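> run fold mRNA m(6)A methyltransferase
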Amino acid sequence: MSREGTPSSDTLIDIDNFDENEVTDLGLKNLLKREIELQLLIDALQTEISQLEERINGKDQGDEEDELDDQDLEEYEAPEWCVPIKANVMSFDWDSLAAEVQFDVIVADPPWQLATHAPTRGVAIAYQQLPDICIEEIPIPKLQKNGFIFIWVINNKYAKAFELMERWGYTYVDDITWVKQTVNRRMAKGHGYYLQHAKETCLVGKKGEDPPNCRHSVGSDVIFSERRGQSQKPEELYELIEELVPDGKYLEIFGRKNNLRDYWVTIGNEL
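> ok
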């Protein structure tokens, strides 16, 4: 508005071409978009509040603290036969790696972006979030001709994960549910937008032929396991993969120190 209270030039409406329905539809779309953004932001803030409360309260009903602190990670000794590569996945020389080895199994835990307003997934997560377009650019097809991909997803990224699988040449074949537990075997619940969250989901895709030595009908698609360090996935998942494809060539992307494992190549900027 101008000083006299009249509309400024950038807010004037062309009366000759005015379409009330079009303006109404545009306004509703903008409001809906804003509502979605606010819901995502609220979800992210609730997660941060939950994590802050856990830090303030210390132990949950006598349970031992389930996260490794920075000192624990600094003193962590890597398994003897693991292959850790500390690198930014967005600038890593994937072509050279692909020229040396083709992997039977790839595991990825992308730092999904909840909303443009939130700088991180949570106060304790060191990874910077990546927009979907950046995750799409990781040249997964170069790293595997035949085999499996395991992708950890968050609630609002299921559709995107399925889209990525298709883009990279995979067919969805299964999923794994990790039911999180405390050290006392209670369900480890966390905040969610509508429901409290006590699980994580890993989608499984397959590309080409079965890798050598591949077995069928192994393990279980449900893992009951203790929630441990920051972004630390259950050891049972790695055991399941090694049972599915014994003596395979394994790669984990966006890995952390507490996920390092013998005979696995692990790439991430937190190693």
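Residues 1-13, 58-71, 116-126 have pLDDT under 50 and may be disordered.
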